[in-house]
Amino acid sequence: MNKNQAILSSKGDFTSFTYDNHVIRFRTSPHLERYTKVKEWDNGYLVVMAKYSNNEDDIEEYIDLIPILQNLYFDTKSFLNSIERGDIQYD
User: Fold this and answer.
1) What's the whole-model pTM score?
2) pLDDT band at residue 39 under the 50/70/90 scheme
């Protein structure tokens, strides 16, 4: 993993966003099976493709990390500035 790369994954009803020894988890749809692709990373705003159990095709989804980070009292600007890209990773 590149040190300027953030990782997105999911397990059960939760999405995990991992970067710089921080793991931020937030609730997601129980139908989400997995993220399949990061289409765009824009300083905390992600456009991703996701596979859901109740849909045959992947669906484009949008994740805005800024309000999540603000609720956790992160300095969003300094935290997000060093992230160059996002990627999907499952164990």
Assistant:
1) 0.88
2) very high
